[in-house]
Amino acid sequence: MTVYLDNNATTIVDPHVFEAMEPYFVQKYGNPNSLHLFASQTHPAIKQGMEKIYAGINSPRDDSVIITSCATESNNWVLKSIYFEYILTSKKNHIMVSEVEHPSVIATAKWIESMGCKVTYLPINNEGIVDVQSVRDNITDKTALVSVMWANNETGAIFPVEEIGDICEEHGVLFHTDAVQAIGKLPVNVQSFNVDYLTFSAHKFHGPKGVGALYVKKGKELMPLLHGGAQMGGYRSGTLNVPGIVGMGKAIEQAIDALDFEMSEVRELRDDFEDELLKIKDTFVVTPRNKRTPNTILISFRGIEGESMLWDLNRAGIGASTGSACASEDLEANSVMEAIGAAEDLAHTAIRFSLSRYTTQEELDYTLDVVKKAVERLRGISSSYAYAPEGHESGLDAHH
Amino acid sequence: MGIDSLVGGTIWDEYSNKVTNLMNNPQNMGEITEEQADEMGARLIVADFGAESCGDAVRLYWAVDPKTDKILLSKFKSFGCGTAIASSDTMAELCKDKTVDEAVKITNIDVEMAMRDDVNTPAVPPQKMHCSVMAYDVIKKAAAQYKGVDMESFEEEVIVCECARVSLSTLQEVIRLNDLTTVEQITDYTKAGAFCKSCIRPGGHEEKDIYLVDLLEEYEKEKLAGKASLGNDTAPTGDFASMTIVQRIKAVDAVVDANIRQMLVMDGGDMEILDIKENGENFDIYIRYLGACSGCASSATGTLFAIENILKEKLSDKIRVLPI
Fold first, then answer.
1. Backbone phi and psi for residue A145, each to the nearest 5 degrees, phi listed first
2. Same domain? A280 vs A240
3. CB distance B78–A349 less than 8 Å?
4. Cβ separation A305–B134 shorter than 8 A
5. Per-residue pLDDT of chain B (324 residues; tens, 9 = 90+)
6. Contact A384 B57 (CB under 8 A)
């Protein structure tokens, strides 16, 4: 049996989405900008796809939803556009991002910082949620942009984007949110609160990889990213990704249809699974359930380094994730765990299980069984639970 | 860049089969209790290294025969990733049947080599090399405990790059001899910095007392100071005979720069210093003429004498100059 529990990384493409995209590879392959029947064949599908994408976030027709290649592109674009429009021209000199943003925001913010802009990295509290007060405390008339994600990819923690949007509006500061982890898991409506830019990506809600989007409110600045044939209103030239737009449209439509299911059934599966995991001794979850996306669990198993746990899960055909030390190239502890200020010895022990509407009870029962066995085996190896003779002074507490 | 660096695989693909097998089924995992050690007539040593907060921790158990200093039994427990567990296991295996003194000589390189499937293919990807360092350190800790001495007493040298085990003195010498100016060059010459990269600059996985960038900066400053003191006044600082080879080369270079090169360049030539060798009480400086000098008749007579005399005057009367 194989079980996929890494849906915050990417998701299976919904078969209906795949079906909808299929004709636009072999049958209707024309370049939409050409002047012939091959081009025209693609137009209804593009229009329909775009309508669905607009509907998916309830965007007014006069606002722009630009199709990009991924969320990383959308995030880079907003921040760099702000740099060129405001920072480079010395109109403003400050931006704010949360300290647990996706690397596509953090790394871009660091680049802007290296170009001489002041950057505030907003802290998160002990529940893993960004602190609204720190936005109020740090915002000034020189702040050009605040960028805070809607939901965190690692913990699933939902951030108070409405409140932050309000603060930005009061101060005349632009607000961007990376909603990659929110679409299909939470109601997303760009008209229900103040937001100027919003990023999302199809492959996180059972759409294809390689299709992202950037919502831009009417009248808000955006520097053209790709110069060329003036597609996407001249903001992002390049031949339209017809199957991508069709796929994203279908996927977001399905995701909105499935939102109730996600928020009830998937949540229930997740909660039950989490209850069972927490019955294993010395396990810890940080963000309270009601403050998390319905599909995500970030859990620490004391005494078990994250990659070891992934190793045992993988051997049993289960795909989960960890942002911790040894599993990633940069060898750093899980950044969210560190930011939360979790007990230091737990920073390398976090495992993320992220479910989807395709996850079944049977899969979770099997996973629970495997996790229990892995915990037993790995704690058997672990020095954290190891025997020491009487009077032995443990040397495992200090940093080396 | 290049095709291999454009799309990464997973680090697990780079583990040797031995690492994989040991992670799945460690051979020396376990504990030795006081009772077990007593039964063997052995002394129990329990040594810890690392910390969970750092991502790696290991506890090593030895049963040592007090009469022969031989490690009769060696077991481990480890908190860490697959590589950490596999290298702890290998380390415990390598300790078996060795005396404590022999075990101290085991390095993390030995551990890594022992985990290779074939001698030419690394057992773990570069960024995982640091996981085996812990296995090496805990042996020192155990031996220190057994002998009742300080762990540092086993480390004759300051190690800057723990993964490749490159010492401070080696790095300083290599940087000077080859006039290295970048971290990449240091890595090419010594392998230092090729693995977990913690030793390159602050901010890596491990905090260090000294980083490769510090050594480069130190050398850069030395060069500037050397130019300042030798450039303005070519009188050498210190006695040529008591200088190190590097200092001698630099001193000769400085004198050539200040007093000789210009005269050669005016005639369309130049020279380079190839080597300085001690020959009895003399110092033989081997040089090569460049440009017009190389074919010039006086290069073996007048010019040569001039060069030799200047160096004798400025540095040491024991200098002889030999063109090649």
1. -150, 145
2. no
3. no
4. no
5. 688 778 777 888 899 999 999 999 999 999 999 999 999 999 999 999 888 877 789 999 999 999 999 999 999 999 998 999 999 999 999 999 999 999 998 988 899 999 999 999 989 988 788 777 777 789 999 999 999 988 777 776 788 888 777 888 888 888 888 888 999 888 888 888 887 788 898 877 677 888 999 999 999 988 888 776 654 544 445 688 888 888 888 888 888 888 788 777 777 778 888 888 888 888 889 888 887 777 676 677 777 888 888 888 888 888 888 888
6. yes
Q: Work out the minimum CA distance from A305 to partner chain B, whole angstroms.
A: 5
d(CA B306, CA B210): 44
- Are B49 and A400 an interchain contact pair (Cβ–Cβ within 8 Å)? yes
Q: What is the dihedral of CA A23, A24, A29, A34, to 10 degrees?
A: 130
Considering only CB atoms, which residues of chain B are within 8 Å of chain A?
8, 11-12, 23-24, 26, 29, 31, 33-34, 44, 46-59, 77-85, 127-128, 130-131, 134, 137, 141, 196, 204-205, 207
Pick B52's closest partner by Cβ from A327, A389, A396. Answer: A396
Classify residue A166: in a domain, yes or no. yes
One domain, residues A146 and A232: yes
Q: Could A384 and B52 be called an inter-chain contact, meaning their C-beta atoms sit closer than 8 Å?
A: yes
**Cα A111–A210–A46 angle (5° rounding)?**
120
CB contact under 8 A, A394 and B48: yes
Do residues A156 and A283 both lie within one domain? no
A305 touches chain B (CB under 8 A): yes
In the residue annotation, B131 being an active-site residue is answered as yes
- A166 and A38 fall within a common domain: yes
User: Which residue segments constitute the domains of chain B, with CATH numbers given?
Assistant: 3-151 (3.90.1010.10), 166-222 (no CATH), 233-323 (3.30.300.130)
User: Which of B12, B14, B52, B131 to mutate to probe the A interface, most A CBs <10 Å?
Assistant: B52
A-chain residues near B81 (CB < 8 A):
305-308, 311, 325-327
One domain, residues A109 and A173: yes
pLDDT digits (tens, 9 = 90+) for A328-341: 444 455 667 777 76
In a domain, A397, yes or no: no
Burial of A142-171, coded b for 16+ CB within 10 Å and e otherwise, reads ebbbbbbbbbbbbbbbbbbbeebbbbbeee
User: Which residue range(s) make up the domain with A80?
Assistant: 15-257
ipTM of the complex: 0.85
Question: Nearest by CB to B46, which of A306, A385, A389?
Answer: A389
Q: How many domains would you assign to chain A?
A: 2
What CATH number does the domain containing A163 carry?
Answer: 3.40.640.10
For chain A positions 376-395, those within 8 Å of chain B (CB to CB) are 380-390, 392, 394-395
Instruction: Kindly list the residues from chain B whose CB atom is less than 8 angstroms away from the CB atom of residue A304.
Output: 79
Task: Indicate whether A339 belongs to any domain.
Answer: yes
pTM: 0.80
| Min Cα–Cα distance to chain B from A370, Å | 14
Shared domain for A87 and A201, answered yes or no, is yes
